[in-house]
Specification:
Elements lengths: L7 E5 L5 H8 L17 H16 L12 E7 L2 E8 L5 H4 L5 E5 L8 H13 L7 E7 L3 H9 L3 E5 L3 E7 L3
């Protein structure tokens, strides 16, 4: 719905809100460089496998070689989950020269309403202080101009680019 006033909140993925998060993740396929490991899972697999796995990864437990801790945050519009944000407070060389600190996706039926822009701002406000660098690193496929606009609207600048992606930086307010 449009035209109303909604409360946006950013909350960590958790079992207590699994149903809302699951509903959102089933409307958010992996696309435009955003991978969604929760897409296509049964609800039982999501609750008993995916959420515990995400919790371990957020705490740095059972990381695959070359991986860093990563937390999932869910963007809520009132009580409805509308977006998924992945957050990595520290980078390795692969992330520093690639995906960066933050990845995000907005469910298909909620796009085009400024939710990604607001969600990125909320995530930076919520967790930006955990980033070790002075800037948040992000990457965006050149085929996704809407996401680039989201980053630029949140203070990003294009740091560099290659044939497929722009690599942006958002100076952090501390």
């Amino acid at each position: 719905p449009t035209g109303g006033i909604y409360m946006l909140t950013m909350r960590p993925l958790c079992l207590e809100e699994a149903e809302a998060a699951y509903d959102c993740m089933q409307d958010l396929p992996s696309e435009n460089g955003f991978g969604n490991g929760g897409y296509g899972l049964s609800y039982e697999e999501f609750v008993n496998g995916f959420i515990p796995h995400c919790d371990r990864y957020a705490r740095g437990v059972d990381l695959k070689p070359g991986h860093v801790p990563q937390s999932y945050y869910i963007l809520f519009e009132d009580d409805r989950a509308v977006g998924v944000f992945k957050f990595r407070p520290q980078l390795n060389d692969m992330l520093r020269n690639g995906a960066g600190h933050i990845g995000y996706g907005i469910r298909r039926d909620s796009r085009g309403r400024g939710l990604a822009k607001a969600g990125l701002a909320l995530l930076l406000e919520t967790a930006g202080h955990l980033i070790e660098e002075d800037e948040a690193y992000l990457a965006v496929k050149k085929t996704n101009p809407a996401s680039l606009r989201v980053m630029l609207a949140n203070g990003a600048y294009i740091h560099h680019e290659d044939e497929e992606e722009y690599y942006t930086r958002i100076p952090l307010k501390r």
